[in-house]
Automatic annotation (TrEMBL):
Name by which UniProt lists this protein: L-threonine 3-dehydrogenase
UniProt xrefs under Gene3D superfamilies: NAD(P)-binding Rossmann-like Domain
Superkingdom field: Bacteria
Species assigned in the record: Echinicola rosea
Family: Belongs to the NAD(P)-dependent epimerase/dehydratase family.
Upper classification of the organism: Bacteria, Pseudomonadati, Bacteroidota, Cytophagia, Cytophagales
Length: 315
């Protein structure tokens, strides 16, 4: 029986992944943690503990006293917010990961999950169908922290046998929780504006293509990776994960089929520079070959599903 601790559980990804893990393992096996104590009310189906991931001692104590066997380490500062306070973001993203890898080594945990991002790629990376292995020269602090984090994960696996697994998520799009300060956040906000009957001002230009993924696919990929036999996991830095690729203009056109009066305007800001260094689309054949990954949702299926379900979340 596993006991699973999740850091940053109250965030965009954590809110959905924690529930999926509770459905799979039982709520009493799940310890949701977050620095945001007020988020405790979200977790009536499992246990919740306030935890700042910078507090290594408290984290180690919880792991020991609760006999935690797996950690999903989600807490991080995302790309746009990181650029506003680079040193703080670097310290949080790196120190917390190193603490968790050390705890996993010392307390011999079964498995660790840590998400990387398409932000590991940079201006000299091939933009179309970006390969698993290629030039990686990220020029954002978030991307640099994710790239370094990938190397640390591979290091702890190779040197100490820590079974740490990772995915390079594209921009994640869901309707159950709001995004937390990234460059891909527009693709969530746009649905809210459409449903609220407001015009949408996009912070990226109309033809900026980025790799994206519906949250259901992201949760499935995460659980598939974490439940695959260890010998199938050949990439110990982080797996490329492809899904959909679209521009603001294309998602607007797709939503307009359901909301014909929905208007968009474009006012690119500092996030445009970040988006311009990220891939347009991702080659995830390593994930397909190693553990059978396939995404399910295209742009139209995702749009229909969000527009059908989001209104209930807004009341
Ligand atoms: P988010 O910003 O929505 O959530 C992060 C959570 O971490 C928040 O609930 C926040 O309160 C918590 N947190 C912040 N500082 C903390 C601290 N010191 N101690 C404990 N908790 C703290 O982020 P998300 O979108 O849910 O992302 C989760 C992970 O997935 C991150 O590692 C992120 O880099 C990665 N990722 C996300 C996306 C995406 O599109 N959402 C894409 C690629 C990778
Ligand atoms: C961000 O935009 O920072 C995240 C990511 C792709 O890592 N959504």
């Amino acid at each position: 029986m596993e006991t699973i601790l999740i850091t940053g559980a109250a965030g965009q990804l954590g809110s959905e992944l924690t529930l999926a893990l509770a459905n799979m393992h039982g709520g009493d096996r799940i310890i949701a943690t977050d620095i945001n104590e007020a988020s405790a009310c979200k977790f009536d189906y499992c246990r919740f503990m306030p935890l700042d991931v910078m507090d290594r001692q408290k984290m180690a104590e919880i792991v020991k006293t609760e006999t935690v066997t797996q950690i999903y380490h989600l807490a991080a500062i995302l790309s746009a917010t990181s650029e506003k306070n680079p040193i703080f973001a670097w310290n949080l993203n790196m120190e917390s990961l190193l603490s968790i890898l050390e705890i996993a080594k010392e307390q011999k945990l079964n498995k660790i999950y840590w998400p990387s991002s398409i932000a590991v790629f940079g201006p000299n990376t091939p933009m179309q169908n970006t390969p698993q292995d290629c030039v990686m020269d990220p020029n954002t602090v978030y991307g640099i922290s994710k790239q370094a984090g990938e190397r640390w994960c591979a290091y702890y696996f190779e040197k100490y046998g820590v079974d740490v697994r990772s995915l390079r998520y594209p921009g994640l799009i869901g309707y159950k929780s709001m995004p937390g300060g990234g460059t891909t956040d527009y693709a969530v906000d746009i649905f809210h504006k459409a449903i609220e009957g407001e015009d949408f001002e996009c912070f990226l230009s109309e033809d900026t293509y980025l790799p994206m993924m519906y949250m259901d696919d992201a949760i499935k990929a995460t659980l598939d990776l974490m439940h695959a036999p260890a010998e199938q996991i050949k990439v110990r830095s982080s797996y490329n994960l492809g899904g959909i690729s679209f521009s603001p203009k294309e998602i607007h056109e797709c939503i307009k089929q359901h909301y014909p009066n929905f208007n968009i305007s474009y006012k690119p800001d500092f996030r445009q520079e970040i988006a311009d260094t990220w891939p347009d689309s991702i080659d995830d054949s390593a994930a397909q070959n190693d553990w059978g990954w396939q995404h399910s949702f295209g742009l139209e299926e995702m749009t229909k599903d969000i527009l059908a379900n989001l209104p209930a979340y807004l009341v």
